[in-house]
UniProtKB/TrEMBL annotation:
PANTHER family: MEMBRANE PROTEASE YUGP-RELATED. Keywords: Membrane, Transmembrane, Transmembrane helix. The keyword Ribosomal protein does not apply. This is Zn-dependent protease. Pfam families: Zn_peptidase_2.
């Protein structure tokens, strides 16, 4: 890999995640100030969608942090950051519906969600140990050690890739639920979609970066075995 290619590679690795995060924050901050036509805070949006789908064993709770919203499948809880929990904005409605989308996936035993859950132990191993194995393999010029590190890393990358259909599916469910439950009007569809699309960019960027890193180490492994 030449110097110019290497610089481009590291520039992409640095810039892509920062751009995705900036896009999310700017879009969210824009629409967190725009009230939805229903006037429902995110907590009520989440509870309505859960009830409309016959899901009564999932709680909706407030959590601290900025965009710390998530669904916890182990405890059956949708956690919404303070603004999204309390405020009736378009951004809050979109985020709340997205997290409930994961709860619906869980209730319906969505295949990709189950697959992602099954990958968690391997992905954690890959995240925790692959870097050390890869660096040791490179510094000590031991192809086998590098290869083992790449295998561990591949599990973490696979987790990132499987996350994409899970997140996009949750966003699609969110849009359908927001419209069918009357939380947003048809003329709000485009603005709500912008919030969900911006959030999805962070997962796409993470997957691209992970794939690029994996490809770089695979090339090193092949070169080491020439």
């Amino acid at each position: 890999m030449g110097l110019g290619t290497l610089l481009i590679y590291f520039a992409v690795l640095l810039i892509l995640p920062l751009w995705a995060q900036s896009k999310v924050k700017n879009t969210y901050k824009k629409y967190m100030k725009v009230p939805s036509s229903s006037g429902m805070p995110g907590a009520d949006v989440a509870r309505r969608i859960l009830q409309e789908n016959g899901i009564y064993d999932v709680r909706v709770e407030e959590t601290k942090g900025f965009l710390s919203d998530h669904y916890d499948p182990r405890k059956k809880v949708v956690r919404l950051s303070s603004h999204n929990y309390h405020e009736p904005s378009k951004a809050a409605a979109a985020i709340a519906a997205h997290e409930v989308g994961h709860a619906i996936q869980d209730a319906e035993d969505y295949a990709f969600l189950r697959f992602r859950h099954s990958l968690v132990p391997l992905a954690n191993l890959g995240s925790n140990f692959s870097f050390f194995l890869i660096i040791a393999g490179i510094l000590l010029t031991i192809p086998g050690l590098l290869g083992v590190g790449i295998v561990f890393m591949a599990f973490a990358v696979l987790f990132q890739l499987v996350t994409l259909p899970v997140e996009f599916n949750a966003s699609n469910r969110a849009m359908d639920q927001l419209v069918s439950t009357g939380v947003i009007a048809n003329n709000e569809h485009g603005e709500t979609k912008k919030v969900l699309n911006a959030a999805a960019l962070t997962y796409v960027a993470a997957a691209v970066v992970a794939l690029m890193e994996l490809a770089r180490f695979v090339l090193m492994f092949l070169h080491m075995n020439e």
